[in-house]
Amino acid sequence: MGNLITNLSLVAKMAPDDYVGFTFFVGCMAMMAAAAFFFLSMNQFDRKWRTSILVSGLITFIAAVHYWYMRDYWATNMESPTFFRYVDWVLTVPLMCVEFFLILRVAGAKKSLMWKLIALSVIMLVTGYFGEAVYRDAAWFWGLVSGIAYFAIVYIIWFGEAKKLAENAGGAVLKAHKTLCWFVLVGWAIYPLGYMAGTPGWYEGWFSGLNMDVIYNIGDAINKIGFGLVVYNLATMASSGEKAAA
Questions:
Q1: What is the DSSP letter of 108?
Q2: Radius of gyration of the chain from Cα atoms?
Q3: Which of 61, 158, 162, 228 could disulfide-pair with 56, CB 3.0 to 4.6 Å?
Q4: How far apart are CA 131 and CA 229, in angstroms?
Q5: pLDDT digits over 113-166, tens only?
Q6: Is 79 in contact with 73 (CB distance < 8 Å)?
Q7: Distance in angstroms (rounded) separating the CA atoms of residues 138 and 135
Q8: d(Cα 133, Cα 139) in Å, to the nearest integer?
Q9: Would you kindly state where each structural domain of the chain is located, as residue ranges?
């Protein structure tokens, strides 16, 4: 009860023009709603799809918890909750990579693909954190290393092993894979904008009018909830097709 009163008081103190705090609040509620939706819908699918839906629920649930803390941190300190954000990402982004493996298992995807994507995502995030919070004077360098890891993920899913597996699977799996690929290529590209808006470097003048946290919050909502909805749609289509065939 004490924590609830504290949280309500923090929300009550939110200024009408605090659009950063507003995006934290909306992000928290959206992630909670998405997590509840995914968890409650699990039982309507066959066992082979439940793990994918479970992972979608875990991604949004973990994000909701962190957004709860980030919202309160922002309301109390009016500072970017960098540490909490990267803790969230280091848990949820690898899980988003796991989704590729889970939907491609029907085409024979091996765990080596999953671990490769997870390793690249961790490198991307750790080096990003170094540039944003530890070695800010060399933010451009750490951002470059993070970007290389990101483009390695893009290559694997668009042109490499994952793409070949998706083509072999065909049908709804291929369609879902392509949609997830677009999320990674376009949706994840939102984050470098936030990074450059919040770190010093040769690019400072380009993004001086943008707020890092707003960009990150919008990116999280689009990507994490969107990833889950793509997987949910795949599971729905696949289950419907199997029932019709039976």
A1: T
A2: 19
A3: 228
A4: 32
A5: 999 999 999 999 999 999 999 999 999 999 999 999 999 999 999 999 999 999
A6: yes
A7: 6
A8: 9
A9: 2-245
What CA–CA distance (Å, rounded) separates 175 from 163?
11
Q: Considering the entire predicted model, what is its pTM?
A: 0.90
Helix 47-77 with 82-104: angle, nearest 10 deg: 170
Check the CA dihedral 191-141-118-175 and report its sign: positive
Q: Tokens 């309500």: give the residue.
A: 8
Q: Which two tokens stand for residue 140?
A: 């451009």
How far apart are the C-alpha atoms of 54 and 46, rounded to whole Å?
Answer: 12
Q: Identify the CA nearest to 68 among candidates 29, 19, 95.
A: 29
Rounded to 10°, the helix 2-12/47-77 angle is 60
Q: Which CATH class is domain 2-245?
A: mainly alpha
Q: Which two tokens stand for residue 90?
A: 């280091």
